[in-house]
Design goal:
Chain lengths: 782, 208
């Protein structure tokens, strides 16, 4: 180590070059790019659907994901109306809002009337058809009553719609499942003495960047706050995917800094209270920073972006990557007079290399679940650990002075005492402890409950959840992402299929297990259905119109005109015509762009009580499938939970085989006992605390194995002073527990589950790690 | 019923005063009118309706009797065919001939609800409902008064040009001109406010 170059400096220089390259890469990727993403959909796997179902899912996601729903409530409906108008005006000012309306647009009604009036003989509703077939005389009597009614406004259309059937047909076309009422052009509902006016806005895109989300949320909130400042007695309700996404981003950002800052502060306290100088801290901080830098650079070059979810998890990396430095520092502190960086490195090399390998393998094993989020997490964490490891190996020689541990260090005294307890206890106590744990695990195993709901991935702020529930109660329907996907060789066959399906759905609505649906065949009946309507209409005109008109005193010419108008050819009604007319605008997306020789459509369902029931109903129609992304993902979560559990067993077997080669089968089993027990105990403690388990608890088990086995390996591999190893393990267990403990505070349930499992698992793995003493002691004797 | 019942013109007069539209009537004259008129709790009488429709050369005439009370409007047509209509602003019931009493599902048909509510508010003089849906103008004529209502909100404005009410002590004539220039005139006669409670027989009529 002279001032000039030596060969020993080569790795150092190389590594500094690598870090510089990583820095350049990271900075250039971040600058001017939208590199940080927060959309929860980015975390989820592409479904294994066929391309059509994929298109349909994306269509429905975009449709529901762009909606913002509001209710403006006040005891005086006029004030609520004015405020709703004001809200719309201010919402539309924002460039990301494509449109905002109260429920009904007068133009939409007149568009519908314009489109359907010339086709009125083709669109008789089911109810009207039944009525015509049953009692045509009643139809005429009802028309007469309408003609004389003081409220009668349809009378003017006597010449073109003599039986006043058109309003009824239109009503069936518009049939909505919501319980809102119309006042002028406002849709409203009453609750708790307030009249709530409905406002719906559409965002340009379902996946906004973090900046856009923030901007939009701020705009909406300041708009509402302004209104509240003027009139505090107005009650606003809002819901929408964008609001959830924004809340999730905000809480994730908060968590990244809480975990990052919290871990660093914890480290600082730990180092200051343990060592006589701050120099160990500089080594630790450099290796952490280098690790994070490498992690960022590798993630950005592999994926092109970093997800906030990765950063939240990644922040816990601090607690793991610091372990290698601790072992070095501890070995130094307990090394003899002749200790050199080289000898220190030699002492810990095997332990930390095996530790790195097992941790990286554990992280890479997370990628068995095909969730892009987990893959990124695995890449990020592995790269970070390798970065921290290489930094220590290549750069530790820069810290030439010796590290000195305070004798008063609590951690040192604890580690010594803890080690003594284990070393002095008789081996059969260890067996008894093992047996006791087996009994505890066996007795409590039944308490474990699982829940694979996909919503664990999204933070669910109670305030938003509450508002959404209130909005659904006012609307009378749940906005769920469940739909039917149907396909057929032609438009006509598809429309007929939809009509058959709708019969079933109508039965479900009558039975109360479905709130409503949107289907193209409601607005465009099949040709077959249109023919039925036209025939029934003609029959009514022929049998009833002449006597009816004569009794009113309509002259023969008037009778002939009306009769010819209603029984002659009508304007055509087909999907292509409908799609081109403005009337189809809100529903156009339900008709999919299908490959040639094929037609496909979506029937959007509202308030479906049971997907199983839907599936049973649709089972009779092979060309239709029920799709519910949330449910598919929940099923997937369940499948992967099982798969991860199997993989864990496999991983233990492989590690057992590997360790057997080095230690022999008996000692290998002993080395594996602490992490196995630790993982199982973590699951049991969490279950006993009343939480249900999900995929993320099981994924965390992989880390418990990966990190927990380090402890036993360090004990088994310790070449120098055993106290130094125990001291290092204690430090690293504390930092790991600190990082994952902070993770368990997350408002995202998945992150919480993951953090808590690792926290408890690592605590148990640490407490049990001296079991490996048995393996070590016997090796020395042999 | 949530709406308070008043005579049509008491409210309308008050209303038009507030709206500042009663330019041809002095404040004192209005006060007189208001003072003279007590709001009856029940108004009953006969009606004759004449409806002129473009297609038909001979106007459609119908007649019958009605009751207006805090239970809503009971409209019983006797000629040329028997029918009954009961409306209270929340629901609308209709019976034709001896057929069943059918309820028009107003929740699913907001158009019908709006129309029936507006008409009811005219009969009842419901202030807020009228004000929010019409421009109101009072014209006092030599032998009584005339009020002109012009609908301003959807969907009334789409269908109706104007509604004109005429009367002296009580409303005597209602005239509706539609956008398609069809015209409906309802003439009221034999108006009675006593007894000032609904008789048991009348309550039964509503309760059908």
């Amino acid at each position: 180590m002279r001032s000039s170059f030596t060969r020993a400096d080569l790795p150092l220089l190389l590594w500094v070059a690598v870090l510089l390259a990583a820095l350049v890469l990271t900075v250039s990727s971040i600058r001017g790019h939208d590199w940080l993403k927060s959309n929860v959909f980015e975390l989820l796997p592409e479904s294994d659907y066929d391309p059509l179902a994929e298109t349909a899912t994306r269509t429905v996601d975009a449709e529901l994901g762009t909606r913002l729903l509001f209710f403006v409530g006040h005891a005086d409906r006029d004030i609520a109306k004015l405020t709703a108008d004001w809200l719309i005006e201010h919402l539309t000012e924002h460039p990301l809002i494509a449109s905002a309306t109260t429920g009904v647009d007068g133009a939409q009604f007149s568009d519908m009337a314009d489109f359907y009036y010339p086709r009125r003989t083709l669109i008789l509703s089911d109810q009207q058809l039944a009525w015509l077939a049953e009692d045509a005389a009643a139809v005429e009597r009802k028309a007469l009553a309408e003609l004389f009614s003081p409220f009668g406004v349809a009378a003017s259309s006597l010449a073109s719609d003599p039986f006043f059937l058109f309003p009824g047909s239109m009503q069936a076309l518009q049939s909505t499942s919501s319980s809102l009422q119309l006042d002028d052009t406002y849709l409203w509902a009453r609750k708790d003495g307030r009249d709530y006016i409905f406002v719906m806005a559409k965002v340009l895109s379902p996946s906004l960047s973090i900046g856009e989300q923030e901007d939009l949320a701020r705009h909406v909130n300041t708009t509402i706050d302004k209104a509240l400042a003027a009139r505090p007695d107005i009650h606003f309700l809002k819901t929408g995917f964008s609001f959830y996404a924004h809340a999730a981003t905000q809480s994730a950002k908060g968590e990244v800094s809480t975990i990052g800052v919290g871990s660093l502060i914890g480290l600082l306290i730990l180092v200051i209270s343990t060592f006589r100088s701050l120099r160990p801290l500089s080594l630790i901080v450099v290796s952490i920073l280098a690790g994070c830098l490498v992690a960022l650079a590798v993630t950005l070059s592999v994926f092109g972006f970093v997800h906030l979810f990765t950063l939240v998890f990644g922040a816990s990396l601090i607690g793991v990557s610091v372990d290698y430095s601790f072992h070095y520092v501890a070995d130094d502190a307990f090394g003899g007079q002749d200790w050199t960086p080289r000898s220190g490195l030699r002492n810990i090399f095997m332990g930390i290399t095996l530790g790195l390998l097992t941790s990286v393998l554990a992280y890479l094993a997370l990628t068995v679940a095909p969730f892009p989020g987990l893959q990124q997490l695995a890449v990020f964490s592995s790269a970070g650990l390798i970065g921290a490891y290489c930094t220590l190996i290549c750069m530790c020689r820069l810290w030439r002075g010796r590290f000195v541990v305070r004798d008063s260090s609590l951690i040192l005294r604890f580690a010594r005492g803890f080690l003594r307890v284990w070393q002095q206890s008789r081996p059969h106590y260890h067996y008894m402890l093992g047996a006791l744990l087996i009994v505890v695990i066996a007795l409590t195993w039944r308490s474990i409950e699982v829940n694979d709901d996909v919503r664990v991935l999204q933070s669910q702020p109670p305030e938003l959840v509450q508002q959404e529930a209130e909005i659904q109660a006012l609307l009378g329907v749940a906005q769920a992402g469940t739909f039917l996907l149907s396909s057929a060789p032609s438009d006509e066959e598809l429309l007929q299929l939809e009509e058959a399906l709708r019969q079933e759905l109508d039965d479900m609505i009558d039975a109360g297990s479905l709130a409503g649906y949107q289907a193209v065949s409601r607005w465009v009946p099949s040709q077959h259905r249109q023919a039925r309507s036209r025939d029934a209409y003609s029959a009514l005109v022929r049998s009833r119109l002449p006597a009816y008109f004569r009794s009113l005193g309509v002259d023969e010419e008037g009778l002939l005109d009306t009769s010819a108008d209603l029984t002659g050819p009508s304007r055509g009604l087909d999907v292509t015509t409908w799609l081109k007319h403005p009337v189809s605008e809100p529903f156009r997306k339900l008709w999919l762009d299908a490959p040639e020789q094929k037609s496909a459509s979506i029937i959007l369902l509202f308030g479906a009580q049971s997907i199983d029931e839907l599936e049973a109903v649709v089972a009779d129609y092979p060309a239709a499938t029920v799709i519910n992304k949330g449910r598919e993902l929940s099923t997937l979560f369940g499948q992967y939970r099982t798969r991860v559990a199997q993989l864990l067993v496999l991983a233990y077997l492989i590690i057992l085989a590997g360790l057997s080669a080095r230690y022999g089968p008996m000692r290998a089993v002993v080395l594996l006992v602490p992490p196995i027990f630790a993982g199982l105990l973590a699951l049991i403690v969490i279950s006993l605390a009343g939480e249900t388990l999900n995929l993320f608890n099981f994924l965390a088990m992989i880390l418990v194995l990966g990190i927990g086995i380090d402890f036993t390996l360090f004990v088994a591999e310790a070449r120098g002073e055993l106290t130094s190893t125990m001291f290092a393990i204690t430090l690293s267990a504390l930092t790991t527990m600190l990082s994952f403990g902070l993770l368990s505070l997350s408002s995202t349930y998945a992150v919480h589950s993951f953090g808590l499992t690792v926290l408890i698992g690592i605590a148990c793995a640490y407490l049990l790690s001296p079991l490996a003493l048995g393996a070590r002691v016997r090796r020395e004797r042999s | 019923m949530r709406l308070t019942l008043k005579t049509v013109f008491v409210i309308l007069v008050l209303l038009s005063t507030r709206a500042g539209a009663a330019q041809e009537t002095t404040g004192e004259a209005l006060q007189d009118v208001v003072a003279r008129l007590a709001a009856p709790d029940v108004l009953r009488g006969r009606f004759t309706q004449t409806r002129k429709i473009q297609l038909i050369s001979r106007p459609l005439e119908s007649s019958g009797r009605f009751i207006l009370s805090d239970m809503g409007l009971y409209w019983q047509q006797e000629q040329p065919l028997a029918s009954v209509l009961i409306a209270d602003g929340e629901r609308l019931l209709q019976q034709v001939d001896d057929g069943p009493l059918e309820s028009v599902d107003v929740a699913k048909n907001p158009m019908v609800l709006t129309f029936s509510k507006s008409f009811l508010s005219i009969f009842e003089g419901n202030e807020s409902e009228l004000r929010s849906n019409f421009d109101v103008a009072l014209v006092s004529a030599a032998d009584g008064w005339e009020i002109r209502l012009t609908p301003v909100t959807y969907p009334m404005a789409e269908a109706i040009n104007a509604i004109i009410l005429r009367g002296r002590d009580y409303i005597e004539e209602l005239n509706v001109t539609s956008r398609s220039l069809d015209e409906t005139t309802i003439v009221f006669s034999d108006l009675q406010t006593l007894p000032d409670q609904l008789t048991e027989h009348e309550i039964e009529l509503y309760a059908r």
